[in-house]
Design goal:
Two copies of one chain form a homodimer. With 326 residues, chain A is α/β, with parallel strands linked by helices. Chain A is 40% helix and 18% strand. Chain A has a seven-stranded parallel beta sheet with strand order 5-2-1-9-10-13-14, with helices on both faces. Chain A has a three-stranded antiparallel beta sheet with strand order 7-6-8. In chain A, strands 3-4 form a two-stranded antiparallel sheet.
């Protein structure tokens, strides 16, 4: 059994290979829920959905988010009504959010709903939210920067100087600098049922190539998870989401700089050093191997750019062959 | 200025004529919100929506509810996921609920959101929810009857022996007998801003031909509204929703029988006698005129069956000519 810590798109690219490379029934994925948001009264879990959509072959390859063969009837109408449309909700995607919200309203936990949703999408891989408790990633920004971009919507937007992850990522297209990150609720959040057990009993723990700050960060903000990870450092391997100084997708590199990290595999290694025995980096970063190893992390270089399913499977095979030390 | 008390479809049929027969800017409509429901986390106001959709020319003439030119992409997908689909949500209709719920979540009142929504649909008639506070119509039923119809869904369905109006009306297709009605929250509910003022200052108050029990009943369960109505009985005229012993639409006749009322214009007159100076009945009910007048209500007979817009306008002209006594 292996367990993967995952954010959204980067993780999904790895996991879609992993379910070819490894027994699907034996893969557990612990997913970040700090990105979750409530919009229009609906509970939206972008990372969980990205992973379920991708692993079930339903993701939209063109956009990189949402479902394939999507339609936009509701959003078009909402736009006509003058409603808020910065968060693009497709019709099929909306059905996911309605399904989830209805069951949550009836008292089911996020774990239970996620399990059910994954099974309805035909997944064998087990998807676990990191917690059933509410954790929200908040980013501290310069309010004047926000005002400059959003104008009069400003007043309904800020919580102090903090904005939600979706506001930062989708509404502001991660175009402004962040000053700090807070994982609201993480201190009190309990790991979802199964999370600690699967970390303990897996032969390998994989930290997917997701944004270390806002995708893996929220998972690492939950103390009981951190304790288990530290105790199981010997079997944990991370794949660097930073290749040659840049994030393949999203603002991970810029966020790292803004928060004082080095935007390189060395910076990634520093963030993960307490949790990781091994860091897999891209061949183009070979020059950093000694610097990473000086931090006490085994460093392996291979081709980590998953431009196709085959590449992803190759990377997973490499990981499984080289990282499992038992 | 006139003020109309309204439920859903029956009221909408009258009001669509009223906005032809009377100055639109001078028509205020106080709408039942006891039918409102929360589904999938969304706040749904069936009566408000029916009236806005109908008065703006957007209602679906075939179904009698929802919007014209509707599509069903979300619901079809929700059905594939195994979600709950007994409440038929069209894509365009969903946009209304998303729009409303988002603004309510941001702290706007139901009155404010309703005003905005009505203006986005181009209405001049003013639509007022009866209250911004939560009132919910609950119907006491025989749990075994519900179980017989819904089988295993039973356990998530009942609140004691009470079911919500939408569960009764839509999910069970009003096919089971009711034992009593309760308007949860009505005792504490305050009339929405403008409601008492418009009742006081209107030259005529019209009780639309809506279900007296569950459409007008919730409005009559709010004490300050009742007090104003009683004080203005002299200018209030009702149109009977019961014609020749049956409801033209919906279960009003059966509900009246089940709750011990006579299913006739006389039964309607008894329910409204404290609030109404005049009851307009259909020509086919002329035989009841003396019985109604014995209750101290002026009784006028005309053609009340609104099979077309022209018929509706005619009825409104008749009402305005005969009912305004000033």
């Amino acid at each position: 059994m292996i367990t993967c810590l995952a954010g959204g798109v980067g993780a999904a690219r790895l996991l879609v290979g992993m379910q070819e490379a490894y027994d699907r029934d034996e893969i557990n994925v612990i997913v970040n829920t700090g990105d979750d948001t409530e919009m229009f009264g609906l509970t939206i879990c972008p990372d969980i959905d990205t992973i379920i959509y991708t692993l079930s072959g339903n993701s939209n390859a063109k956009t990189g988010w949402g479902l394939k063969d999507e339609t936009w009837n509701v959003l078009e109408r909402l736009d006509q009504l003058g409603g808020s449309t910065w968060f693009s909700l497709g019709d099929k995607d909306l059905a996911t959010h309605l399904f989830r919200t209805e069951l949550l309203t009836q008292g089911q936990t996020l774990s239970q709903v996620t399990q059910l949703l994954a099974s309805r999408f035909g997944l064998k891989v087990k998807i676990l939210p990191m917690s059933d408790d509410r954790v929200r990633t908040l980013l501290r920004v310069d309010p004047f920067e926000v005002q400059k971009q959003l104008g009069e919507n400003f007043s309904t937007f800020l919580k102090g100087d903090y904005i939600s992850f979706q506001e930062y990522f989708v509404r502001l297209k991660h175009s402004i600098a962040i000053k700090s990150v807070r994982f609201d609720g993480a201190q009190m959040a309990r790991p979802a049922p199964g999370v600690l057990g699967t970390l303990k009993h897996s032969s390998t723990i994989v930290i997917c190539p997701s944004n270390p700050i806002v995708s893996i960060g929220p998972i690492l903000a939950i103390s009981p998870i951190v304790d288990i990870l530290k105790a199981n450092r010997h079997k944990t391997v991370a794949i660097s989401p930073i290749v040659n100084g840049t994030a393949l997708k999203g603002p991970a590199d810029r966020m790292m700089i803004e928060l004082g990290h080095e935007p390189s595999v060395v910076g990634v290694a520093r963030i993960y050093r307490e949790y990781c025995d091994t860091l897999i980096i891209d061949n183009s970063d070979r020059r950093y191997i000694s610097q990473v190893e000086e931090l006490g992390i085994r460093c392996l270089a291979t081709d980590t750019i998953m431009s196709s399913l085959d590449k992803s499977v190759e990377l997973c095979n490499y990981l499984l062959k080289n990282a499992i030390t038992e």
